[in-house]
Amino acid sequence: MSTLRFKPSGKVLDVPKGTLLIDAIRSAGLPIASACGDELVCAKCGVRVLEGRVTRESPVERDTKRRNRVPPELRLACALRVHNDLIISADYWGSDS
Ligand code: FES
Questions:
Q1: Low-confidence residues of the chain, pLDDT below 50?
Q2: Domain with 24 in it: what CATH number?
């Protein structure tokens, strides 16, 4: 299992290793933007990994971010599988979400 912590709400969720981050975010009850059905096309699901080790971007994720002008520091939650403990944030998560 890996432990996800979400900022700024402080929500904590344990997920099996290999869980898709976007699924974990939904399981935590947090909003996550998606306009492509998690198909790695829209780049709306960008989040910040504040702490923790994540896999490198795939060429598809990099291209999708570039095409949609997503800042390089964001990772696409539908592209990222959780393998370690992470601290995650999104610009539109308030302290009550
Ligand atoms: S949900 Fe569309 S790229 Fe992630």
A1: none
A2: 3.10.20.30
